[in-house]
Amino acid sequence: MNREKRTAIFQRLRSANPAPTTELVFSSPFELLIAVILSAQATDKGVNKATARLFAIANSPAAILALGEEGLKEQIRTIGLFNSKAKNIIETCRRLVSDHAGVVPRDRKALEALPGVGRKTANVVLNTAFGEPTIAVDTHIFRVANRTGLAVGKTPLAVEQRLVRLVPTEFLKDAHHWLILHGRYVCKARSPDCPNCPISDLCEYKEKTMALPCARSRTA
Ligand code: SF4
């Protein structure tokens, strides 16, 4: 895909949604970090329900440590893998307090050193809490980047590195959210909505879906 097409794709995604953001509800870098840890293999909606309960009683590392692992589990037990997530969150809070004065670090290496925080989570926090031009390649972005031809790659890291290199600078900061939302609602895994896709004429996917024939033409 050439630069003109890539630019046109992001211009269209920007016109449709000038200020995209995450669907996770948060009011501080710490809340976002916890929500992202909880979101592995869970829906944003499910995470938001649990964090609404949790953050009402504990939204700082010290407060979650005071809840303890069992107390934390009580608040997040509706979320898949809550046992291991609770363990990681407690240990993460302990390290935030002991190593970072209770503050989420704006630094990839320090973030990735926290339990339950991998490259993807660090990228989300750096981008969404701190405004860094990082791109966290999840299943949606991986699919959209490969299908459209925006950034073809065999692994999430390869796609991330290509996107960071190829997305025009003016779109880099918001590219993450435009691509996730596009993958979640339009370029869906099983049935991409190509007939209603705003970038269909720019997308290089070879197996685009067709519009269903209308009732009249079916009966004609
Ligand atoms: S045209 Fe289809 S495959 Fe291409 S981005 Fe749009 S929905 Fe996805």
TrEMBL record:
It catalyses: 2'-deoxyribonucleotide-(2'-deoxyribose 5'-phosphate)-2'-deoxyribonucleotide-DNA = a 3'-end 2'-deoxyribonucleotide-(2,3-dehydro-2,3-deoxyribose 5'-phosphate)-DNA + a 5'-end 5'-phospho-2'-deoxyribonucleoside-DNA + H(+). Its cofactor is [4Fe-4S] cluster. InterPro entries: DNA_glycosylase, Endonuclease-III-like_CS2, Endonuclease3_FeS-loop_motif, HhH-GPD_domain, HhH_base_excis_C, HhH_motif, Nth. Signal peptide: none annotated. It is an enzyme of class 4 (lyase). GO terms for biological process: base-excision repair, AP site formation. The keyword Iron applies. Its EC number is 4.2.99.18. GO terms for molecular function: 4 iron, 4 sulfur cluster binding; class I DNA-(apurinic or apyrimidinic site) endonuclease activity; DNA binding; DNA N-glycosylase activity; metal ion binding. PANTHER family: A/G-SPECIFIC ADENINE GLYCOSYLASE/ENDONUCLEASE III (PTHR10359), ENDONUCLEASE III (PTHR10359:SF18). DNA repair enzyme that has both DNA N-glycosylase activity and AP-lyase activity. The DNA N-glycosylase activity releases various damaged pyrimidines from DNA by cleaving the N-glycosidic bond, leaving an AP (apurinic/apyrimidinic) site. The AP-lyase activity cleaves the phosphodiester bond 3' to the AP site by a beta-elimination, leaving a 3'-terminal unsaturated sugar and a product with a terminal 5'-phosphate. This is Endonuclease III. The gene is nth.
